Amino acid sequence: MATTAPDFDFETPRPREAPFWYRLYRRLEEYALLMRLDRPIGIYLLLWPVLWALWIAGDGRPDPKVLVVFVAGVLVMRSAGCIINDFVDRDLDPQVKRTRARPLAARRVTPGEALALFALLVILALWLVLRLDWFTVALSVIGAVIAVSYPFFKRFFPLPQLYLGVAFSWGVPMAFAAQTGGLPRVAWVLFIATMLWVAVYDTLYAMVDREDDLRIGVKSSAILFADMDRLIVAAMQAMMLFALLLAGRSMQFGRWYYAGLAAAGVLFVWQQWLIRKRDPDGCLRAFLNNNYAGMVIFIGVLMEYVYRR
Questions:
Q1: Contact in structure between 166 and 197 (CB atoms under 8 Å)
Q2: What is the mean pLDDT of each run of 10 residues along the chain (309 residues)?
Q3: Which of 92, 212, 223, 304 has the most CB within a 10 Å radius?
Q4: Whole-structure pTM value
């Protein structure tokens, strides 16, 4: 009698599992994307004011240990800030075109993994700041609280860019405290200048997402300023340069410093041109251009001390 073979006599081969080293590489890649290491613009924007402050507080010769701690701290805390921001926004980011591919939004990284990586970075930041004096450590705790609470302000505060300005500017008084042990008047003038600058470039950034933010109910200065956005940004740019002018007069700086401010002013005019139509691409280019504004100001500070000696 003929028989038919059962349909389970053979198995479909299972897909080969990727090697361990490859899977580890892919996880580390996702963690790097979560920390925005592929987009270092945030590191640069956070770093320039810290360098302004360290060079001024150190009279052109910042303490090498303090310099290394602050540069490493900027990298670590910016990465930690990106993680906690994405953790808080993990259900909002999928609704925004620019952010929907982020690891947490796309569910390629779990919330638990994100919190574990955030905790690791905070511990590393604490280890770094403990290399410095206790006054600086105390200021760092305040700064950390401000930075971690920022993502929640977008839910209810109509001007979260101003709060981010405080968070991103806190490195300035910390730099003076670490370098000099005190907080002179020029430290607070630089703090105000930096706070205004952060509000400027983060408003430009918010203008990129204005339509999505309106749809999902997120607050931003771009929404609050509405059709007065370009005018108010220009006013903040002018106030930032004026604050830096006052800081330069207080330090008796000369032509190199003011040349740096003039170059930053030219870049601000270029940013106004880029956002003239308020299109997302132009606003993003204007935001990115602020890296060069911070750079030329630092070059002015650096050259001032180089040619003073």
A1: no
A2: 46 62 83 91 96 96 96 94 91 84 90 94 94 94 91 86 93 96 96 97 94 86 93 97 97 95 98 96 97 98 88
A3: 304
A4: 0.90
